[in-house]
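job 3f2a | input accepted
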Amino acid sequence: MKTIKGPALFLAQFASDIAPFDTWDGITKWAADCGYKGVQLPSWDTRFIDLEKAAASTGYCDEILGLAAANGIVVTELSTHLQGQLVAVNPAYDVAFDAFAAPHVQGNPAARQAWAVDQVRLALTASMNMGLTAQGTFSGALAWPYVYPWPQRPEGLIAQAFDELANRWRPLLDHAEDCGVDLCYEIHPGEDLHDGITFEMFLDRLGGHTRCNMLYDPSHYVLQCIDYIDIYKDRIKMFHVKDAEFNPTGRQGVYGGYQPWVDRAGRFRSLGDGQVDFAAIFAKMAANNFDGWAVVEWECCLKHPEDGAREGAAFVTDHIIRVTDRAFDDFAGGQIDVEGNKAMLGILKERNSI
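job 3f2a | predicted structure (354 res):
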């Protein structure tokens, strides 16, 4: 068994143009002051990283890591969630997702998709240059508008969508192999990879690619009323610690009735305020030999983010299990005694009676 590393914080929800959240030095100092040991870096945020430079220069990567280290922080992983989303976009979402891209490719779906692929590739190279072994991302979605089978889906529509999704990601996964980095897809609503079955559909088309892995976020499984931690334990290479609650009523269930987050039956909450059984999850992660980072992702429609961040660091610290190096009942055991074991099993007696 292995002890999870942490606590770490995903910076995407905290970055802003207001100090200390507007510079790499400022935000890493703040994270350390909150009690964090690591941060997950959103690779699209140019206030913190120049991704092209990081892919081209190990010296530049050393500067990023060195400044964080001077503030008591390590970089746990890079995130390409926004760029990964743009690897595959159904035309229904062209306008909604266009703002995720660089201005020079907005309004041009083909150029935007090529830009997104290049961004993920750059981030994989930058991860290698930083000595990182995992990268979080989204899969994007071609089939998501058809998630509910009404109207009836044409035969072969979903299979064709997943064939194309795998074709787009295969070269990136091969590059991930070259870089020694696991691509960890967050299994998430709005993505074609949104549950275990869809992940398997994708993985099958990739021939079980070893770099195709998962980012485990239990909040999404409270909202979907499922959990896959035991089924895919060998594919879980990243961990977002995020809470959620699901309180359906006679008027509203999993679809949410188009309501804003605060009025939805299913909503994300700050750590400890929702329904996720984190004691059980941290125990499973320890038993499953997960040795990555426990990374807080704060998303809450009620609590102030800075309060959620400080409480989250303490919450994770309290839940990390320092795994034991010996069995609790070792005191009652003894040395291996082969003959004694045979006697206990009746083996000697059986042989003597033949």
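job 3f2a | The chain has one domain: 5-329.
job 3f2a | closed
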